[in-house]
Design brief:
It comes from Paenibacillus chibensis. The chain is of the alpha/beta class. It is built from five helices and six strands; from the N terminus they run E-H-E-H-E-H-E-H-E-E-H. It has a single domain (about 1-180), classed as Flavodoxin domain (Rossmann fold), CATH 3.40.50. It has helices at about 15-30, 60-70, 85-95, 120-130, 155-180, and strands at about 1-5, 35-40, 70-80, 105-110, 135, 140-145. Strands 1, 2, 3, 4, 5 and 6 form a six-stranded parallel beta sheet that branches. Strand 1 (about 1-5), helix 1 and strand 2 (about 35-40) form a beta-alpha-beta unit. Helix 1 crosses helix 5 (about 155-180). The relative contact order is 0.19.
């Protein structure tokens, strides 16, 4: 089983850090699960222009192929202006609708206000519905205050929610695979 963790940010490293932390917790639960961090700032991805996803080349093709080949996904985004990042929205536009169909997905987000956690409920979960994904019931929102001066997560409640999200992803994926 392959879990792809997507960091939908091209600036900073907080979102990638949270995604990576969940991936690490997944590996602790089941070392046999292959994990991959797809950090969007490491790729030169084209803007979606409506062509068939298979027609893209270079980094854009690599990113699309990585999402398509995953068994389940963890999706992370910084919250800007009460919305997901444009980078993540572009990725959703690039991948074929079948890329996340009947796959377990989980969400993490980072932001500067305590109300921005609602982006997960009001924007990301409906997108998951469009893709016909199975969404982990928990998610993790990490506020700027949850990081210490070394940019490490230091809030025990957040660390507990990260561990619970990892558990939910593994549990749901294993149950789904056992039914298939």
């Amino acid at each position: 089983m392959k879990l792809v963790g997507i960091s939908g940010a091209i600036i900073g490293n907080k979102t990638a850090m949270v995604v990576q932390k969940v991936l690490e917790e997944v590996k602790k639960l089941d070392p046999e699960i292959e994990t991959e961090l797809l950090d969007m700032k490491e790729y030169d991805v084209q803007f979606c222009d409506g062509r068939d996803p298979s027609a893209y080349t270079g980094d854009t093709k690599k990113v699309i192929d990585s999402v398509v080949s995953s068994d389940f996904c963890l999706i992370g985004t910084p919250i800007y202006q009460a919305s997901m990042s444009g980078v993540l929205k572009n990725l959703f536009d690039l991948i074929p609708p079948s890329a996340l169909q009947q796959k377990v997905i989980g969400f993490v987000a980072t932001g500067g206000t305590y109300q921005h956690y609602l982006v997960i409920e009001n924007q990301l979960k409906p997108i998951a519905g469009f893709f016909r994904s199975y969404v982990a019931p928990g998610y993790v929102y990490v506020h700027d205050d949850h990081f210490n001066e070394f940019k490490e997560i230091n809030d025990l409640d957040v660390l507990d929610r990260i561990q619970r999200l990892a558990s939910e992803l593994v549990f749901m994926q294993k149950r789904l695979k056992s039914v298939e």
